[in-house]
């Protein structure tokens, strides 16, 4: 994303699609220090490690947007490989992290392990990597414990599966609720500003302006 704010904070990012679900495992780093975080390592850990090496950054944390298998299937393995803490999601997704192996079996994803993060995240908290600070917004609906990471200086968010370009997260899985999801988007994400760009869990990113104006689930919402 190589964006720059008025405070001269810089960040870089690469997306590593993983698993048959083509989940956007994302590596984001603070440009001055090359300190990095891995978002949602859903699987294919050797591929993620290769991308980290190629990028030349130092990963210090793993951040999880929510507990679904395609986002967390490789988290325990990657934590062991890098010796770094896992932060997130919200504790409401604990039941998902307690059942990673069983969930993987249902969806044909093997090699995952049940685990607990080193830190649960809640509304209003902040997380940091290098010179970058992200605010945490608890945005349930896709899953009960989904969180969004928002960097105000860069006008950037990582929204996981809460919002997509042209769509929203599915709500037919256990713990999902469509009305709750739409309320999360309308009450917590859109008010952050039309200029906010985002990376999501699958597919291309977008901006809140584009989604407010054209997303069929949100058209006309302020």
Chain-wise SSE layout:
Blueprint: E1 11-18, E2 23-30, E3 35-39, H1 45-55, E4 58-63, H2 69-72, H3 75-82, E5 86-87, H4 94-97, H5 100-107, E6 126-129, E7 132-138, E8 147-151, E9 156-158, E10 163-164, E11 167-168, H6 178-189, E12 197-199, E13 206-207, H7 208-214
Parallel strand pairs: 3-4, 4-5, 9-12
Antiparallel strand pairs: 1-2, 2-3, 6-7, 7-8, 8-9, 10-11, 12-13
Please, could you describe this protein's structure?
This protein is of the alpha+beta class and 222 residues long. It has a single domain (11-214), classed as 4-Layer Sandwich (Metallo-beta-lactamase, Chain A), CATH 3.60.15.10. The protein contains seven helices and 13 strands. The chain has helices spanning 45-55, 69-72, 75-82, 94-97, 100-107, 178-189, 208-214; strands at residues 11-18, 23-30, 35-39, 58-63, 86-87, 126-129, 132-138, 147-151, 156-158, 163-164, 167-168, 197-199, 206-207. The protein has a six-stranded mixed sheet. A five-stranded mixed sheet has the order 1-2-3-4-5, covered by helices on one side. It starts with 10 loop residues before the first strand and ends in an 8-residue tail after the last helix.
